[in-house]
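Suppose you are handed a protein chain with no further information: no name, no annotation, nothing but its sequence. What can you learn? This example shows the usual starting point.
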Amino acid sequence: MTASNAIAGKAPPHCQVDPLVDLRGPEDPPWDVYLTGTVFLDIIFTGLDTAPVRGTESWARGMGSSPGGVANMATALARLGMRTSLAAAFGDDHYGEYCWDALEQGEGIDLSPSRTVPGWHSPVTVSMAYEGERTMVSHGHEPPPEEPAPDCPPRARAAIASLTPGKRAPWIEQAVRKGARIFADVGWDDTGAWDLEGLPDLKHCEAFLPNAQEAMLYTGADCPRKAAHALTRHVPLAVVTLGAEGAYAVDGRTGETASVPAIEVEALDPTGAGDVFVAGFVTGTLADWPLADRLAFAGLTAALSVQEFGGSLSAPGWSEIGAWWRQVHSVEGQDKAALKRYAFLDGLVPGERARPWPLRRAVPTIGFGRST
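A reasonable first move is to predict its three-dimensional structure. Written in structure tokens, the prediction is:
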């Protein structure tokens, strides 16, 4: 598995909506979004009444397997119509083969910058969902280092990075030089320093999307909204996710702010919801939507994702978004302010008679249909 069947400049095969259709031109980069990171095989248990108790055995009522890690965001982007290119190492095993096929054949993601590493096994995460939260156990090894290909990163409208405290990722500056707009989230600072100076690549970013706790720790602010404003001294656009309270964003270039409450849904599995939120926000930004619409769309896609198994294959497509929009319109006495908040969907979602593409969903295990 060293080449990709995705065609540069072509939309994912299953996508019914191209949010950038009015913005595309012959001189555009071949890809809308570039990502790099680690692909895991996720095994998700749902339907647990409580957290597992030491010394006991717990049975889950549901189970799903799907690509995870950076695959969560790559899949979410592709399902929203973004032409997505992913650079990742894949394990030289059945798990790696399954993940490669699911992303390339199933989602139309370009894997030409990716590689299969001989003799290296796929990282695995077991996620247990209960009481609206999750607990995860992971295992894996760093893949052998390899110099990036001459065209890596490829030209793209945007790139998404996960910043690591105290470390610089040279590819981010390379992507900026090729014209990419950088959107970044951040991992937990195990050192406890929480110093923005320890994020050297933040200076290359257009948008920074931490959660509320991370934003407050990095800025010393006593509330997430103050933290978002403080972050705009370091990055043009700050988006802070607030969990059950939604999200808040500040554009330091214009002074514009936006706040959107979370959509209440019954969560089956929250794995990857944060990645889907970022994918939704990046999609709206590249489509030049107003800040409030981008924030609302990101929250909506994240909310829809938690109603399915698994991080990557739980991401919604435009059929699911359209079905949700029609369903909320059908509810008598619906809040007019809420309907107005999502009115931008009217010109985007496919009609009720549009043929829904059968999106892949997480399955209990992999390898069905193999001959013995």
